[in-house]
Amino acid sequence: MKQIVITGHGGPEKLVLRDAPDPVPTAGTLRIRVHASGVNFADVLARQGLYPDAPRPPCVVGYEVSGIVDAVGTGVSKDWFGKDVFALTRFGGYGDAVVVPEGQVFARPAGLSHEQCAAIPVNYLTAWQLLVVMGSLHQGETVLIHNAGGGVGLAAIDIARHIGARSIGTASPGKHAFLKERGLDEAIDYRNKDWSVELARLTDGRGVELVTDPLGGSHWKKSYQALRSTGRLGMFGVSVATESSLFGPLRLLSAAVGMPLFHPLALMNTNKAVFGVNIGHMWDEVPKLRGWMDSLLRGVADGWLRPHVDRSFGFDQAGDAHAWLEARKNTGKVVLVS
């Protein structure tokens, strides 16, 4: 098999394609011959040495794959053999073969390509947890989606549209037309305008019921201030850390210094809430993830869940894929194809 290995912390050049023995499925697992692997910002952070959960280099990251089952372990139904599937993985997804527990595997929906399926697990489960499970977004409410052009952002637009909520998103101006075609109600140019001023204008100064924020640092304070009474702030990343000129873990420290402190009394007095989401810490809650995925797959069947792949890169172009994502050039998902 071939794997994309992070050989050390640093730039995209640290991603190297290497040969490795095929993994062998054990009890309760199956092997997927991978056609497409999802690329996530967590992978970029891992390469930069900013993701505490990632294995030490040399390592193979990757949280989601789509492909065909070519071997099963003991205790796994042989009906899986030869099936088109997609799956959640706890690292190892940057390979053309991966062994995954049966509970983390799902049949590929008819009509979706392997690339589209690789765009579903992390982005849509994260957005579902943010908007539905913990964000409790309802019809008629308003959600502010930061980085609306990213993979989670597009998933959040689909879900908000399905719920019947109003969606406002921050994105660079070149992405606005596409985002509105996807169903975003209002787009804010965060690069050339103060998004908080534009948001106040769009909400008549009231603010919103929900904010989804992957940026972190002092940005969370500004997002919290954008909430109206009963508003909720959902935090799911610290991407501002990649913008620091400091080295390695010091980047996280610089981002942490600017983070707000949410005091319980202040939360009570303002009738606001804050919460965090990290799908990578949900491995002991696989039954919940499967339940959420069942709802999402019904969305595929009903036509409101529409995974969008921005670009596909070959395994030998993994560095280019990371650079594309890191520069925020993508609108939707970036995937690797073997």
CATH architectural category of the largest domain: 3-Layer(aba) Sandwich
Order of helices and strands: EEEHEEEEHHEHEHEHEHEHHEHEHE
The total strand number stands at: 15
Cα shape: globular
Q: Largest sheet at a glance? A: 7 strands, mixed
Sheet-strand content, in percent, reads: 25-35%
Question: What level of helicity do the residues show?
Answer: 25-40%
Secondary-structure blueprint:
Blueprint: E1 2-6, E2 15-19, E3 29-39, H1 41-48, E4 64-72, E5 84-88, E6 97-101, E7 105-107, H2 114-118, H3 121-133, E8 142-145, H4 151-163, E9 166-171, H5 176-182, E10 186-189, H6 195-202, E11 208-213, H7 219-225, E12 227-235, H8 250-257, H9 264-270, E13 273-276, H10 286-302, E14 309-314, H11 318-326, E15 333-337
Parallel strand pairs: 8-9, 8-11, 9-10, 11-12, 12-13, 14-15
Antiparallel strand pairs: 1-2, 3-4, 3-6, 3-15, 4-5, 5-7
Helix pairs in contact: 3-4, 3-10
